[in-house]
Design a protein that fits this description.
Low-confidence stretches: 192-255, 562-566
Helix content: 25-40%
Largest sheet: 5 strands, antiparallel
Strand content: 25-35%
Number of helices: 19
Distance between the termini: 49 Å
Length: 669
């Protein structure tokens, strides 16, 4: 009752789960109420001769929903039942011609109690104290429960007599076996299909049920008793039969159920100037910092706005003031490193970035970022130092230990590599780490939501960067864990990819990586969410912002199937081939359902997605997976999901082995 009242008051819908109702039916009703056509602000006008209507306030009515309305009949009734309201925000009206004759048919014996029940519900929703007496009278007169009365159940007529209880039963009992006298009316207003109709404007049929006899016990007063002999009920239903034809249509009659879906819309344009919005953000941040000069958040907001606008000197000044107030704030130091890198000061940027480790030496992500940055810069000794720290933070991780040993041996530090081996907890771990150290590291695949390929002339080293909406720099120095950079030290090209992009405005810029002079001309080939564009650039100073990348969220309506669900994407199939070891093949194929799920979840967005992954796995003698790599034509979404699940596999212990096999992904249709 409370939920129904809240829904009615707010113009919403209330769906009550009925015993025996299936989950599918409940889900369909919920989807229809949310995304289907509904009649809102509904009103009902009855012809003369029908009084004491209950309920007088109608809820929101969805297509196919039945609403019971009951009224007393004072005599023969002839006229129109008029339903008015709003459908899709547009006025709606439908008329039903009605002719009722007074009847006392046994099949309509349930109608008096139905009317009393609806009348009691309406009075109780009103919550007025003066209605209590009428509620009690209706409850006692018609044998209907209410909040003000209780129910007494006795087993026999003798017990009623023994306790002097008036049974109050109707003289005309309804058994459900007698036929109901009813009338059916067709809507007289024809609604032609139109875009504004959204597949149907309103109800065109209503079932009108009449009949009923009064209860034997006297109602509230003598006049009520006389009128109660001629009461009727009406059930107004927004019909969804196939023959309902036009108007407020059912799904089969032409209504197209839809659901709202949000999707990302990319835009790649040439950068022209700082937008007025950013200028306003800078001014607002300055005012707020002036009002709160000791606020960390106000310093950060101004640094972010200035960094995004490209005012690097001012941003560094504010970041320095930020650090003076909080010398242990890693975020301020990170912005300092970003700003130095965007200004072309590579060495100083790397040293500043390394200072983050001093603030949080046990944070694995920082060490991993420094490993990637130093390896991109060709400074393997510093990269190995951070790998040693990673081994100390994860002493039982054979893959990390193997990568550290491989790094140390690549720079001729075999003795240090042996120290790593001896520090491992047991012989099995040492053997597994030695095995992992012999596996060459696979280069990450350049792919994702954003891929930028830069080409230029002049035989100089340039840095390619993406500036995020919060002013952070993403480049070969890191900035995000999902960034992949290729050819970072090349003098004529570089690639940068981000696996995922959220809504916002991003900038792409190029920066001189060394002490070069003169103009440099090149091109950025940008692929973002399937949109491709090439932007030429000319670098005259130390830095140039080349393009603006915008991702907006837009909504669209997608058709819902007949069962209230979005049409299913094609069924995913995965074929695993190339595994000669039968025991290993059984382990890999045991998770075929998970690999299919990795594929299936992306088919909804791209039903044509198909391809192959080439898998390489290193397994130690204990059956643990030391390394698993999956690469191919399926994109990062599938490959990362499959790779992470392969890493969790456990093979039969015995002999260490390397597995090479392929996975082919295709659809069933």
């Amino acid at each position: 009752g409370v939920l129904a009242a809240v829904a009615r008051g707010g113009g919403g819908s209330y769906l009550a789960w009925a015993p025996g109702q299936t989950v599918q039916a409940a889900a369909i009703a919920g989807l229809e109420s949310t995304f289907g056509t509904s009649l809102r602000a509904a009103t009902l006008e009855l012809p003369a001769g029908l009084t004491d209507v209950a309920p007088t306030v109608l809820p929101t009515i969805r297509a196919g929903e039945e609403i019971l309305v009951a009224a007393r009949v004072t005599g023969e009734v002839q006229g129109d039942v008029v339903i008015r309201g709003l459908v899709a925000g547009q006025p709606y009206e439908q008329r039903y011609p009605l002719t009722l004759a007074v009847s006392s048919a046994a099949g309509n014996g349930f109608v008096p109690r139905l009317w009393a029940s609806l009348a009691i519900d309406q009075l109780e929703r009103g919550g007025r104290g003066e209605d209590r007496a009428r509620v009690v009278a209706l409850s006692q007169g018609y044998g209907v429960m209410s909040k003000e009365t209780s129910l007494l159940v006795l087993e026999s007529a003798a017990m009623f007599d023994a306790f002097s209880v008036d049974r109050g039963t109707p003289t005309q009992k309804w058994t459900g076996e007698d036929g109901v006298e009813e009338a059916t009316a067709q809507g007289t207003i024809d609604y032609a299909p139109s875009p504004a109709d959204a597949g149907g404007a309103g109800a065109d049929k209503a079932d009108l049920v009449g009949g009923g006899a009064p209860p034997a016990s006297a109602p509230m007063n003598e006049e009520d008793a006389k009128e109660s002999s001629a009461k009727r009920a009406q059930a107004v239903r927004l019909d969804d039969d196939e023959d309902s034809g036009r108007g407020f249509r059912s799904r089969r009659g032409g209504m197209i159920p839809m659901r709202r879906v949000w999707f990302r819309v990319p835009s790649v344009t040439r950068y022209d100037a700082v937008s007025p919005t950013i200028q306003h953000a800078i001014e607002q941040a300055e005012d707020e910092l002036t009002a709160n000069p000791d606020s960390r958040e106000r310093h950060r907001a101004l640094v972010q706005a200035l960094a995004y606008a490209g005012e690097l000197e001012r941003a560094r000044e504010i970041a320095a003031r930020w650090l003076e107030r909080d010398k242990l704030d890693p975020q301020a130091l990170g912005y300092q490193a970003d700003l130095l890198g965007r200004d072309g000061q590579r060495e100083l940027a790397l040293r500043t970035l390394a200072g983050l480790i001093d603030l949080d030496a046990d944070r694995v992500e920082l060490h991993e970022r420094m490993v990637r940055a130093y390896e991109m810069a060709g400074r393997l000794s510093q990269a190995c130092a951070h790998r040693i720290s990673l081994t100390a933070l994860a002493p039982k991780n054979m893959t990390v230990a193997g990568a550290t040993m491989r790094c140390l041996r690549s720079v001729g530090r075999e003795r240090d590599a042996q120290l790593i081996v001896r520090a491992l907890p047991d012989d099995a771990t040492r053997a597994a780490a030695e095995k992992a150290a012999t596996v060459p590291a696979l280069a990450p695949r350049i792919g994702g939501d954003l891929v930028v390929n830069a080409r230029w002339e002049g035989n100089v080293d340039l840095d390619l960067s993406v500036v995020t909406p919060d002013g952070k720099r993403v480049s070969w120095m890191g900035g995000r864990t999902d960034v992949v950079v290729g050819d970072a030290s090349s003098t004529d090209k570089e690639q940068l990819a981000l696996k995922s992009l959220k809504r916002g405005n991003y900038l792409i810029e190029v920066t001189r990586g060394g002490a070069s002079q003169g103009p440099i001309r090149g091109t950025l080939d940008i692929t973002m969410l399937g949109t491709k564009r090439s932007l030429p650039f000319e670098l005259l100073g130390s830095r140039a912002v080349v393009g603006r990348l915008a991702i907006a969220l837009e909504e669209r309506l997608e058709q819902v199937s007949d069962f209230g669900m979005v049409p299913s994407p094609p069924q995913a199939q995965v074929v695993i081939s190339g595994i000669s070891d039968q025991a290993a093949a059984r382990v890999v194929r045991a998770r075929a359902g998970i690999y299919r799920a990795c594929y299936q979840r992306l088919l909804g967005a791209d039903p044509s997605l198909a391809g192959r992954l080439d898998v390489s796995m290193v397994i130690d003698a204990n059956g643990n997976v030391l390394n698993a790599m999956a690469g191919g034509s399926m994109g990062s979404g599938v490959s990362v999901c499959v790779q992470s699940n392969l890493q969790r596999l456990r093979f039969p212990a015995g002999v260490a082995q390397d597995l090479r096999f392929s996975m082919t992904f295709r659809t069933s249709n």
